[in-house]
Write a structure and sequence with these properties.
Layout: H1 4-7, H2 14-21, H3 50-57, H4 63-75, H5 87-107, H6 116-124, E1 129-138, E2 149-152, E3 163-169, H7 171-188
Antiparallel strand pairs: 1-2, 1-3
Helix pairs in contact: 2-5, 3-4
Length: 195
């Protein structure tokens, strides 16, 4: 289990966003300053890819049609002033900017947390986490908190531990691995064929 207390430490700051937007310019020794892991309130515009979503949602399309439609959507959204912005990097950037604006509006977070990637990162890099083995139950009978996980962190119930719960993650290791994965995806993305 990777709870919010852990995922809320993996934040998409403005510096992280800038790195993602410029995926094609990264080198193997990429290192981010400590300020990359702090909250920021700078706002960014976003582009939605609604037409692409509609196309992918239809059943009878060819791979070439998807690629053509992707290219048509990307052409108008890539930063034309910078040759260093790949279409894939720009797409990731725009999606995260939209995600950031939603988190700001709904939860008042300046920098949104990445929840699901933390769980996958645990599966591939458990050594980057601190964990405890504890008993966890799920509330199923309350009208006010149905579905809430109850973690017996202090062992008060004296029940056999049934879940490994993450308590901390090394955010630098997370972002280092995330950037390597994004670099690989960027090198293979059909979006970049559009440029």
């Amino acid at each position: 289990m990777v709870p919010l207390e852990v995922t809320h430490t993996i934040l998409v700051t403005d510096e992280i966003l800038a790195q993602i937007k410029h995926i094609g310019t990264w080198d193997e020794k990429l290192s981010l300053p400590m300020s990359a892991f702090s909250r920021s309130s700078e706002s960014h515009p976003h582009v939605e890819y609604a037409e692409l979503s509609r196309l992918i949602g239809t059943k009878q399309i060819t791979g070439k049609e998807v690629e053509t439609k992707m290219c048509n959507n990307v052409e108008g959204s890539v930063d034309s002033q910078s040759q260093q912005v790949s279409a894939f990097g720009n797409c990731c950037y725009q999606l995260l900017v939209f995600f950031k604006s939603t988190y700001k509006e709904i939860f008042s977070f300046d920098s949104p947390p990445l929840h699901d990637p933390c769980t996958i990162f645990y599966l591939t890099n458990p050594e980057a986490f601190e964990t405890v083995n504890v008993f966890v139950d799920v509330e199923t009978g309350s009208e006010k908190c149905i579905g809430r996980t109850l973690v017996d962190i202090h062992g008060i119930l004296k029940k056999k531990p049934n879940v490994i719960v993450c308590t901390r993650v090394d955010s630098r290791k997370f972002w280092h691995k995330m950037f390597k994965c994004l670099q690989l995806a960027n090198s293979r993305s059909p979006l970049n064929k559009c440029q």
